[in-house]
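Q: Hi! First time doing this. I have a protein sequence and I read that you can turn it into a structure. Is that right? Here it is:
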Amino acid sequence: MPKGYWIAAITIRDASAYADYQAAMRAALEKYGGRYLVRGGKTAIAEGQPRPRAVVIEFDDLATAVACYESEEMAPVKAMRLRMAEADLVVVEGWDGAY
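A: Yes, that's right. Below is the predicted 3D structure, encoded as structure tokens:
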């Protein structure tokens, strides 16, 4: 079964508050089995106008990734992020390797 992913591009406006957001995010991710694959780090811009921070979070499947995003645990975390950052986020099903 293909994994599910959150792929986010983020511009942080308030770096001092971002650590609190990351801590709040941890509880929701743990409940739904989310695992960071990419969490900031150095980037090399290949095309387009990306945001400064990239994040990729893996879940067991697309349904779990969607459920986590729509969960009551995530509601206050999303509200917190909206106050301190702008983001583009897609929830996507991974490739299962079959052709």
